[in-house]
Write a structure and sequence with these properties.
It is built from eight helices and eleven strands. By secondary structure, it is α/β, with parallel strands linked by helices. It has a single domain, classed as NagB/RpiA/CoA transferase-like (Rossmann fold, 3-Layer(aba) Sandwich), CATH 3.40.50. Strands 3-2-1-6-9-10-11 form a seven-stranded mixed sheet. Strands 4-5 form a two-stranded antiparallel sheet. Strand 7 and strand 8 form a beta hairpin.
């Protein structure tokens, strides 16, 4: 396999050198998918298997704890998280924010969406494109009329909602199941945000909201796994080391 990859790489370079005038730059989504595949392929299969198992273990443990959180505590914690996030300077300065909608036992992100609309922001919400294994981004103004169950029951914008250019996004609420103080995260395993985040402008803030019980000492991570700039829980805010 490595020999084949080496040959293909050599051929690709030769094509670029000899036919540079005919080379068409890949789209942002294509570059993100290639980046994810390249970084994943760079790790030995055994190491990948061990990492997947470690992530699966953390994912299952934290999900059990999150699912068991009483509704009253979940409501209070969600309000505290949303209040802190909506008051952050990077959030108030943002014109276009990318938010997720709550699914399963996640904190209620609709509170933050309402705050963003009240501040006059453009609110973007992702829609899963399973064929491309990417997220399509759409603007949302009314969660009652513009949101419906989508991929695997996840609340998503309707397909006719206006598209949002990735380059216009200033602030991202990054979902996840577990986080650590270094900004590493364990997501749901689909890799959608690992592919999306490198396509955004470098200056776009990446912030996570999570219950305190979702924080762990260290998240098992691979080189291609994306990090967040800060994690906000109902009790505190953890600012992560600057991204490279």
């Amino acid at each position: 396999m490595m020999v084949v990859v080496g040959v293909l790489h050599s051929i690709s370079r030769r094509v670029l050198i000899l036919g540079e005038r005919h080379y068409r730059r890949p789209s942002r989504s294509a570059r993100g998918l290639r980046y994810h595949r390249r970084m994943t392929a760079s790790s030995p299969p055994v190491a990948n298997f061990g990492l997947r198992e470690a992530k699966r273990s953390v994912r299952e443990r934290i999900l059990r704890a999150r699912d068991a959180l009483p509704a009253q505590l979940r409501t209070a914690a969600s309000a505290a998280i949303a209040a802190t996030l909506s008051g952050r300077s990077d959030f108030t300065a943002a014109g276009v924010v990318l938010l997720t909608l709550p699914f399963g036992s996640e904190w209620d992100t609709r509170l933050l969406l309402s705050a963003a609309l009240a501040q006059g922001k453009t609110v973007a919400v992702p829609r899963v494109n399973p064929e491309r294994r990417m997220l399509d981004i759409h603007a949302v103004c009314d969660t009652d009329s513009e949101i419906a169950p989508g991929y695997r029951g996840i609340p998503e914008p309707r397909a006719d909602c206006p598209p949002v250019a990735l380059a216009s996004i200033d602030w991202v609420l990054v979902p996840g199941i577990a986080f650590d103080a270094e900004g590493r995260r364990v997501g749901y395993g689909g890799g959608y945000y690992d592919r999306l985040l490198p396509l955004l402008e470098k200056g776009a803030a990446r912030v996570a909201g999570a219950f305190e019980l979702q924080l762990v000492d260290r998240v098992p991570a691979a080189p291609h796994d994306t990090t967040v700039d800060a994690i906000v829980t109902e009790r505190r805010t953890l600012e992560s080391p600057p991204r490279a």
